[in-house]
Amino acid sequence: MSGSAPSQLREGATSKRFLHELLVRCLLLLLATAALNLLVDPFGTYGTRVFEPIVFSTRGPKLFLYEQRRPRPEIVVLGSSRSFTVEPAYIEARTSRRAFNAAVHGARLADYLDLARCFSRDGAFPGIVIVGLGVEQVLGVGQPAERQEPLAKCHGPLGVSASRVAQRYRGLFTLEETWASVRTLALDVRGRPAPRFTFAADGLVLGSELPPQERAKLEQAVDDGLAGNWYPGIFAADGLEPRSVAQLQQLLELCRDKRARVVVYIPPFHPRATARYLRESHFGRLKAQLLDQLASWEAGFPLKVYDFTDVSQFGGSEEMFYDASHPTMQAYRRMLDVMLPALI
Fold this sequence. Notes:
Elements: H1 4-40, H2 59-68, E1 75-78, H3 88-95, E2 99-101, H4 109-121, E3 128-132, H5 162-169, H6 175-190, H7 215-227, H8 242-257, E4 261-266, H9 271-280, H10 283-297, E5 303-307, H11 329-339
Parallel strand pairs: 1-2, 1-3, 3-4, 4-5
Helix pairs in contact: 1-6, 4-8
């Protein structure tokens, strides 16, 4: 009996060493996995920008480009992809003020508010904010257009909470993100297709200087849009969504608190699309509600509103579109010619 005690002690000590070594190895593996995922950043969540993410993203790249601008822009454009072709260089030429296009695809009012909060926390809020506000954006809050929500670090009116940090970085330790990192590295070795959108340093989408479509192709693009994402049913709501209206008001309040002037414009659809919306949906009534809401705020905010639904309001034409919903750079130059004189 007495001889077995030292043997048991040795076995116990060996087991403890084994467990300790196993724990250390697991910890090192977790740290290595987290470091890999942080460096590769396959979903564009952390902003390391060493590798191109494998997911479609415009929010992360736009915020990254904005944060790289020195000095900070004095005029910022908020919008959806319908505002991608608003040209910062044209704004600068007309106003002598630095400009940046912060429009992101599938934009919600929550994205506008988050971007404005990012500007606020950056310590250099723009003096003028130009907001492209489509009627469709105030009909529902919608779901985030991008996974991991790249603008999550700007959520809420206060600083970043511990729970928000944990939520943002929890993917570092997941198998899904690790596998995505491996795929990202493999794509960099084998080659990958060009990203859907790339942006210049001022946020302008590259390729926006392309000429308008040929008439036959434009007509087909309008037809495709009306049969797809831009079908008349998107304006079937009975009224504006209260939460979206509240987010718009919060955006205006933040701009007011930062002493920024705000220009809101309703971007145009292709005239044929507009005619169909007016004929087959509640678009006209919903737009009137939105304009009434904005008018009720004009006394309380440094706010100017432009309705460009009718292309004649800015001297536009049917040819100044790429499809049912996206005006060309030429169209936006004419819209800016209407808006900018009040800002100079």
